[in-house]
Amino acid sequence: MSLHGARIDRVEAAAYRVPTDQLEADGTLEWCSSTLVVAQVSGGGHCGIGYTYAHHSAAAMIADPLRDCLVGADPLDIPGLWRAMNRALRNIGRPGVGMMAIAALDHALWDLKGQLMQRSVVELLGRVREAVPVYGSGGFTSYSTERLQQQLANFVSCGIPRVKMKVGSEPARDPERVRLAREAIGPDTALMVDANGAYGHSQALDMAERFARYGVCWLEEPLSSDDLDGLAALRRCRPAGMDLAAGEYGWDNWYFRHMLQAHAVDVLQVDSTRCGGFSGFLQAAALASAHGVPVSAHCSPHLHAHVCGAVERLAHVEYFHDHVRIESMFFDGLPTLRDGALHVDATRPGLGLTFKRRDAERYRISA
Q: pTM value?
């Protein structure tokens, strides 16, 4: 079959629930498992693989109605298919689980296109850098002091020059936990904190000033990401040298545009698994660039290594503990971590992934 004669002939999805290695918590939530939804789109003798982290109902949305948008269509027409999938969810509810389902399929479509064209996804997107800088992320509020310090120190020992911890569950303890984190990582590693929207306005400013004593350079979601006025006000009076970041819950360009127009962030966080895949991520990155704001990719580090290799105004990618672990369990051919950055093997077509189906089967759940 010729490249341009290929048609999508099969679309599949399955959900997998993976227990965490111990109880995890942030400023507003605690959890003991993560759910991975894997999509496979086949056509022209190849199978594209994509995934998202979402409720298992995302797999059901892929089966109905999103599958009907793809079967029989040209797999190279990703913009047209992306628009069709967005339209199909109009009456169901596009933000949230709907966009996560689209994300898994969008990732799979880019993987399939790369295989059909025998090019890596990062090359198809337009590679601008050979390596994607990361920050080590974990430091959950449920961790003991020993676990907190050990995990952050391990990131540093792997050559990662910046690390992030969670705060907000017990605000009274946060400054001491930040001090202990600084003690563990030394004076030269960048220290970042994430409150997941747990603080009030005056509390957030007080905490920012306390954290600044320990060289914290990144304050993420000190307030709810819906409170754009509050974030903008806090940004105007935050300590010097501390970036304010938010945006990980953005589903579409309307969300990102409002956040940028409000001057609510120094760095816009974007999550490809939530905003409709690489197609949505690139749109958000273009909006941020137009406002002179860099982007940072939220979680899913091995997916983001591809799209962030094609984004010029990039801060870094979150090397999130849970997702590093899960992606290593489920896939071979992942980008490799060297010298604090992820490196994509651009000689491998598509995303370069091999799904370890047999290993994954024990975690499969009904959608």
A: 0.97
